[in-house]
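Run folding on both entries below.
>entry_1
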Amino acid sequence: MSKQINFTIVPAESEDPGQRLREYANFCAVAHTPFDLTLTFCDVQPLSEQDLKSAEASQTVQAPIVARIALPFSVVPGLIAALQEQMRAVQAAQGAADPAAWPKGPLH
């Protein structure tokens, strides 16, 4: 006879502050395969004159990849729900329930 155990998974923080990893990204590209969803996080820095000239010619700007995360589709609905809940909390805290009032930025 098998026993069912209910549990919650929580991130295990390192006791060493030097080992606590946090990366900053201000751009996220989303792609998928038949098997998973891939989120590629980048840190887009202000563009130099050379970057602007290159972007004008190629219509692209390259940004360093901070992290690339592949998620099985079974995780995606929970991620979407968690992101929506966090956005509701941010909107309530900022007093701007209408996302149209928020600053515009790249969506990809």
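>entry_2
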Amino acid sequence: MARNQSDSFEIPPEMRAFAEKSFEQARQAFEGFVSAASRTVTTFEGQAETARKGARDIGQTAMAFAQKNIAQSFEFAEKLVRARDVDEILKLQAEYIKEQMQTLSEQAKQLGDRTSEAVKNTASAQH
């Protein structure tokens, strides 16, 4: 069966141009969306990595403090075992408490500083 020209349908040039333009705009919009989504994922990954690093640093610092405090407690216990009398025990106890209060105060400040720094770094990674 042969087709004659009157049976064929031709798309008017204006309609073809409109369709092509619409397609191109849709493609550009999709590419823009994919690009924005990719940037967002990269930003979130960077923030998560910064937060992980900050948390790891804070955790390591806390562990170092715990080790130091345990070592000081053993030193104190050793001194107590060697004490000669109650007066020496009371003196050692007072010194230990004073030293521990100073140590804990310094450690709390350092942990606070590191936490603030980690939060600041995570926030700056958002921008």
